[in-house]
Every structure is written in structure tokens, then in C-alpha cells.
UniProtKB/TrEMBL annotation:
InterPro entries: Flavoprotein-like_sf (IPR029039), FMN_Rdtase-like_dom (IPR005025)
Residue stretches making up the NADPH-dependent FMN reductase-like domain: 6-150
Lineage of the organism: Bacteria, Bacillati, Actinomycetota, Actinomycetes, Streptosporangiales
Protein name: NAD(P)H-dependent oxidoreductase
Gene3D superfamilies: 3.40.50.360
TM helices/strands, residue ranges: none
Domain of life from the UniProt record: Bacteria
Length: 203
């Protein structure tokens, strides 16, 4: 097994590349912090791929989720990044969680669900309220499907109430966001190394 940890950021912006994305920016900041702890990272904007609706690993012809799933299987840490839309995660993030739900039926050679031993963290941006609720929903779904959530397992930014502004338009990263993102990365890398050294018990 390779010694270097790997992280995959699934960016659930509704904007296709190359449009600027606040979710992608925060996801990249998480990956940059993880890199400081020896974690190799890759960012994928999900909307650039044809991810069919469904709750199976492969939904057939034209479905590009299996390609993204291979990247996820090869990773130790998942960074799920989503914008806030009408107080909820994006529809893209919801679809990703629905597709990950298929992993409940996938197991390793010792009977463990396929996502056991992987760490997941959540990053949320929005020019409206809702980050805490989104994090709660995402963390519950990710935990249910086998991921382990570290202490300080999320980072987020919300615009000031009634004064919408985008994260990508800020002159600098707010100190509270930067500090939280740094703690998230430190704890996620630490936990991923522990789980790699000692996996959960076999089923």
C-alpha cells in the first residue's frame, strides 16, 4: 500500500468549468492545507461529468460516476464541497451522496463496507444562511455510508445576512475560515493515517 495519503475533492458547484466557483476555491484551500501534511490532492468539479441519478455503483451507458468512484476508492480522504442554495446543499451534492449510498452494498475482502477506513470532511460556502444544516446533513449521510469524520470535520463561510457576497470576491480569506480549514486538514490527515495503520474490525 502506498505511504502517501491521497485526497479527492468533489466540488458540487452548479457552475461548469471554467466558470469561477467559490466552492472550488474553498475546496482547493482545504487541499492546500492537506498538502502541508503530506497529502496529495485532486479536485474534480462534478457538474463537468455526466453523473446519472440513481443509487447503484454504475447506472449504465453514459454514466461517468464509475470514473469518479475509482478516484474515490483510491483516496484516503474525501472533501465534499458544496454551495448553499435556498438553504440547502446543491442538487449536485445531493446526487453525489445518493450515488455514494450504493457503497453500502460494496464490501472489501473481509466484509467491511467499501468506505470504511476513509475520512470525509465537508466545505460549504454561501451568500445566504444554511451552512450548519448542510454540514449536519452531509456528515450524517457520509457517516452512514462508512466514512469517518474527524474533529473539526467541516469548514464554511456565509455572507453577512441581507448583504450577499461571494467567497471568491473576498479580498482575503477571513481568519476564522483559515484557522478552521487548517484544523480540519490537520485532523483529517492525522485520522487518515491512524485508520490506514489500523483498519476497523472485519465484519
Amino acid at each position: 500500500m502506498p505511504s502517501t495519503l491521497r485526497a479527492l475533492a468533489l466540488v458540487c458547484s452548479l457552475k461548469p468549468s471554467p466558470d469561477p466557483s467559490s466552492s472550488e476555491l474553498l475546496a482547493q484551500q482545504v487541499l492546500d492545507e492537506l498538502a502541508g501534511h503530506g497529502v496529495q490532492g485532486e479536485s474534480v468539479r462534478v457538474v463537468d461529468h455526466r453523473v446519472h441519478p440513481g443509487v447503484a455503483v454504475d447506472m449504465g451507458q453514459g454514466d461517468e460516476w464509475p470514473e469518479l468512484r475509482r478516484k474515490l476508492v483510491d483516496s484516503d480522504i474525501l472533501v465534499l464541497a458544496t454551495p448553499t442554495w435556498v438553504g440547502h446543499m446543491s442538487s449536485v451534492a445531493q446526487r453525489v451522496l445518493e450515488r455514494i449510498n450504493a457503497e453500502l452494498s460494496e464490501t472489501d475482502d473481509e466484509g467491511r463496507p467499501s468506505m470504511y477506513g476513509k475520512v470525509a470532511v465537508v466545505a460549504v460556502v454561501g451568500n445566504e444562511d444554511g451552512a450548519h444544516k448542510i454540514v449536519a446533513d452531509c456528515v450524517q449521510a457520509l457517516s452512514d455510508t462508512g466514512f469517518t469524520i474527524p474533529a473539526t470535520g467541516s469548514t464554511y463561510w456565509n455572507s453577512e445576512a441581507m448583504n450577499p457576497k461571494d467567497y471568491i470576491d473576498l479580498d482575503s480569506t477571513p481568519e476564522a475560515v483559515a484557522t478552521t480549514t487548517a484544523s480540519l486538514a490537520r485532523n483529517a490527515a492525522h485520522l487518515a493515517r491512524l485508520l490506514r495503520a489500523q483498519q476497523y474490525p472485519a465484519s
